[in-house]
Amino acid sequence: MEYTHVTHTFGPVYDDASRILILGSFPSVKSREQQFYYGHPQNRFWKVLAAVFEDTLPETIPQKKAFLLEHHIALWDVIASCDIAGSSDSSIRNVTANDMEVILKTADIRRICANGDTAYRLFSKYCLTAEMPEVKKLPSTSPANAAWNLERLTQCWAQELLL
């Protein structure tokens, strides 16, 4: 397995009205190419959010940013830099975490949701403090999580996002 040291090159999406923070682990190769979150066409993240909020599927980066802010969602990744083989979450090592205070000092975040096991595990290990809101582990929207179809993902995510 060939590892590359990679640094996250695009910032979080949030404003002072954000109430829910959704965290991924680290951007995929496709997302790094596009310089925005969940850029792989097979990832179901944007489809799940559009279904949860019964809204139009955002397609462009400006539409995606506007969608998140309209629904009071902050979006970021746990990892600032790491060694990774391609897009494989299971290969992540030598982690430097993002400073969650960047968002938490500005927005009134009431819930933190981790998109999948890896994001949850890494957040719990590197970022979680007693002062932070409850963290919920949600099933990954990655195409690698084939056990969860779009309908099942949407139902689960809706339980946590529709407060």
TrEMBL record:
InterPro entries: Hypoxan-DNA_Glyclase (IPR026353), Uracil-DNA_glycosylase-like (IPR005122), Uracil-DNA_glycosylase-like_sf (IPR036895). It comes from the Bacteria. SUPFAM superfamilies: Uracil-DNA glycosylase-like. Residues 10-162 form the Uracil-DNA glycosylase-like domain. Pfam families: UDG. GO terms for molecular function: DNA-deoxyinosine glycosylase activity. Keywords: Glycosidase, Hydrolase. It is an enzyme of class 3 (hydrolase). The keyword Hydrolase applies. Its EC number is 3.2.2.15. Signal peptide: none annotated. Gene3D superfamilies: Uracil-DNA glycosylase-like domain. NCBIfam families: hypoxanDNAglyco (TIGR04274). This is DNA-deoxyinosine glycosylase. It comes from Roseburia hominis. The lineage of its organism: Bacteria, Bacillati, Bacillota, Clostridia, Lachnospirales.
